[in-house]
Design a protein that fits this description.
With 234 residues, the protein is α/β, with parallel strands linked by helices. The protein folds into two domains: 68 residues, 2-Layer Sandwich (60s Ribosomal Protein L30, Chain: A); 154 residues, Alpha/beta knot. It has nine helices and ten strands.
Length: 234
């Protein structure tokens, strides 16, 4: 089944990351043709289709001049087992995130701030065509995986000596200074239901963001960006 990428940033990111043999068709307009990297090579292989602006907008309403049809959904460079076992860095784990906007925001923040991978668990939003578009290309640069069980992921990370942080609304927070840990994981729970019962017992440190205004909490995407920054900077 083909996989459609729409939007300038996502398409340009895809052209940097996806092997040419995985590309089915690249669509553009006269205005966006100069932006396409290796456009001549794609055209020579019969994969480039230029459309009039009106026709393009009708066919690809979210494309903004560029759309890319892949033969299948993008494949990761590593397996989940490799991602949880290799080297130091921060792994972001989401559980039951319902809103694809929030999931895409987390992907974008995680990639931009230097996390090494994202693991999506539980029911809810997935890394589908919409998520790739909204992440503005970040999904192509960040290894991401799906697993149905948060419990399994936490057990795996603990077995590989990760220190597990939990994002939780409330007055609890991490110490002012964190120990120099090489391998960290941050768990972000559902924006509607919070974290599952019992998960807190499986984590090491609870992080929360103090609310100084009248608003009780931040959405999951914004909170994740702040906490990822904190963990990457400490």
């Amino acid at each position: 089944m083909s996989f459609l990428i729409q939007g300038r940033r996502p398409v340009l990111a895809a052209l940097l990351c996806v092997p040419p043999e995985h590309i089915k068709t690249l669509y553009c307009t006269e205005k966006t043709l100069p932006e396409i990297q290796d456009a001549a090579l794609l055209a020579a292989r019969g994969k480039l289709v230029q459309l009039p602006g009106a026709d393009f907008r009708k066919r690809f309403p979210d494309g903004r001049g560029l759309a890319l049809e892949l033969l299948s959904r993008p494949a990761g460079k590593r397996t989940l087992a490799q991602a949880t076992a290799e080297g130091q860095g921060l792994i972001v784990v989401t559980d039951r995130i319902q809103d694809v906007q929030n999931l895409s925001s987390i992907v974008r923040s995680a990639e931009a701030l230097g996390a090494k991978s994202l693991i999506v668990t539980g029911s809810g939003a997935r890394m589908d065509e919409t998520a790739y578009r909204i992440s503005a290309g970040a999904a192509f640069f960040l290894d991401h995986f799906f697993h149905g069980s948060l419990k399994y992921i936490l057990e795996t990370l603990r077995n590989h000596n990760y220190t597990i942080f939990l994002s939780k609304a409330g007055e609890q927070s991490a110490p002012a200074t964190l120990p120099p840990l090489k391998q960290r994981a941050l768990v972000i729970g559902s924006e509607y239901h919070g974290i599952k019962s019992g998960v807190e017992r499986e984590t090491d440190i609870v992080l929360s963001i103090p609310m100084r205004g009248h608003t009780e909490s931040l959405n999951a995407g914004v909170a994740a960006g702040i906490l990822i920054h904190q963990l990457m900077a400490s």
